[in-house]
Amino acid sequence: MNAVITNGMPVEREKHRGLHFYISIYKKILVQDLKSKMSYRADFIISTIGMIMTNIAGFVSFMILFHNFPTINGWDYYHMLFLYGFSLLALTPVQCFFDNNWSLRMAVQSGDFIKYCFRPINIFFYFISEVFDVKGLGQFAFGAGTLIYAWAHIGIPVTFVTILKLLLYLFTASLFMIAIMNFAAATCFWIQGSGYVMVILFRFKDFAKYPATIFQGFFKFVFTFIIPVAFIAYYPSMAILSPGDIPILTILAPFIGLLFFYLSYKFWMLGVDRYDFTGS
User: Fold this and answer.
1) What distance in Å separates the CA atoms of residue 103 and residue 97, rounded to the nearest whole number?
2) Is the four-CA dihedral 144, 36, 31, 115 of positive or negative sign?
């Protein structure tokens, strides 16, 4: 076994693996995870209904807001609804594919995380791929319906280029939310109360459904460059809503998103390097 010594313990070195290898492994893990979930159908149904009700409650709150305020900083009902649907779609990947980040602190504190350190496979991939949250598909459907409804009322032309831009910027927006949660989850390698960090940062996603123009000064800087919730919906969606006057941050968003995700991955792996195998 090729191994390196980390914190006094042997850890098998990850062998070079190609994309095909990881896709085939992920398919097998996904099938097993779905079989496990289907064995508890009542729990699955209840949790799915809970997710749908949560989205409905958010939508009702949105309707009440616009019943009292016809516009928000120049944004009318349908443009805000587009932003709301866009944010739901952008949040779906972190809900479906990266939900296991919520369990990271428990695995680290109990010492169970050690099992991920003795496989010839990327540890980040191994841990994250173990869980696929099917409930996120309900959020995807709700977000898609909302976006399509708003799109039709705004009158945005449906062209190949527009759809391509939509997919690109939805992917971009997802990278930012995934990166935020990667950073938050990995704090458990350094601090005991990392659960609070995750909850707080996850709550910031609620600001994504509002245009960044409502924030001023310090808060605008924070929500753009420190906790970049403005990139979860506002800046990416401007590529569709304002194609003739695209902000520079919208143009740069795909590159910034890739960089931010990469930095979050390196931070996550840095935490793995300092993991002491003992739990707490």
Assistant:
1) 13
2) positive
Give the CA distances from residue 5 to residues 10, 112, 268, 276, in Å, rounded to whole numbers and listed in that order.
5, 19, 19, 12
From the list 113, 109, 55, 257, the residue with the least C-alpha distance to 174 is 257
Q: Which two tokens stand for residue 148?
A: 């399509």
Interatomic CA distance for residues 192 and 127, integer angstroms: 20
Provide the pLDDT for residue 1: 36
Residues 6+ apart with CB under 8 A from 210: 72, 80, 83, 234
Which parts of the chain fold into alpha helices (H)? 19-38, 41-68, 77-97, 104-110, 123-128, 136-154, 160-186, 194-203, 217-221, 234-241, 248-273
CA 261/CA 228 separation, integer angstroms? 12
pLDDT per position as a tens digit, 249-270? 999 999 999 999 999 999 999 9
Q: What is the mean pLDDT of the chain?
A: 85
**226 contacts 180 by C-beta, under 8 angstroms:** no
* Cα dihedral 259→263→269→271 (10° resolution): -170
Three-class secondary structure assignment of 66-110 = HHHCCCECCECHHHHHHHHHHHHHHHHHHHHHCHHHHHHHHHHHH
pTM: 0.85
51: DSSP letter: H
